[in-house]
Amino acid sequence: MRERAGLLAQELKKTVVLVGMMGAGKTAVGTAVARKLGVPFIDQDDEIQAAANSTISEIFQTYGEAFFREKETQVLARLLAGPPCILSTGGGAFMSERNRDLIAASGVSVWLNAELNLLWARVRYRDTRPLLRTENPYETLKTLFEARTPVYAKAAIHVSSFSNYSVDDMANAVIRALTEHPDILKVTNHACR
């Protein structure tokens, strides 16, 4: 990344854990942030599925949500113990106080805050969301949104999402927010020679 007379070097000091509702863009934005910072991107749901050799939907259907949440915490702890990365979590991961404590101890939580109507526009035609397999998925999403928003607000950093933002715009907004915290993302200016 160039800046007028010098080069900026960035060093990620802690794992950045993206939290928020389904459809907030955690995976897409996280992938873009990781690419821009030159660090690994890990999707927690992918890690859970690999460990269980099952899809999230299959885990929910076969073992139930409580089993899934326990596996989610185990995988989160393992990933936070690794080198700094950008980590996308499932929508319910941050609801657990245990998970919030793990994240605060070893990483930093970043809430991708999107309005309900934007989330609905993004998830309404997808059948990969087990929690939305109800008679009225919009009402289910609204109920989840209302219950989860106050908990997401406990995240260390908040980044608002807007319908006119591209994935790249959101990734840049996350990086800007991270640079305000040198203990998370250290940016140094190296003069060009």
From TrEMBL:
Amino-acid positions noted as binding substrate in the UniProt annotation, renumbered to this chain: 45, 69, 91, 148
Residues binding Mg(2+): 27
Cofactor: how and how many bound: Binds 1 Mg(2+) ion per subunit.
EC number(s) per entry: 2.7.1.71
Cofactor(s) listed in the protein's UniProt record: Mg(2+)
Pfam annotation, one family: SKI
EC category name: transferase
InterPro entries: P-loop_NTPase, Shikimate/glucono_kinase, Shikimate_kinase/TSH1, Shikimate_kinase_CS
Top-level taxonomic group: Bacteria
Pathway assigned in UniProt: Metabolic intermediate biosynthesis; chorismate biosynthesis; chorismate from D-erythrose 4-phosphate and phosphoenolpyruvate: step 5/7
Main location, first listed in the record: cytoplasm
Keyword check for Cell inner membrane: no
Assigned keywords, A-Z: Amino-acid biosynthesis, Aromatic amino acid biosynthesis, ATP-binding, Cytoplasm, Kinase, Magnesium, Metal-binding, Nucleotide-binding, Transferase
UniProt similarity note: Belongs to the shikimate kinase family.
Subunit (UniProt): Monomer.
Function recorded in the entry: Catalyzes the specific phosphorylation of the 3-hydroxyl group of shikimic acid using ATP as a cosubstrate.
Protein's name in the database: Shikimate kinase
Source organism per UniProt: Meridianimarinicoccus marinus
Gene that produces this protein: aroK
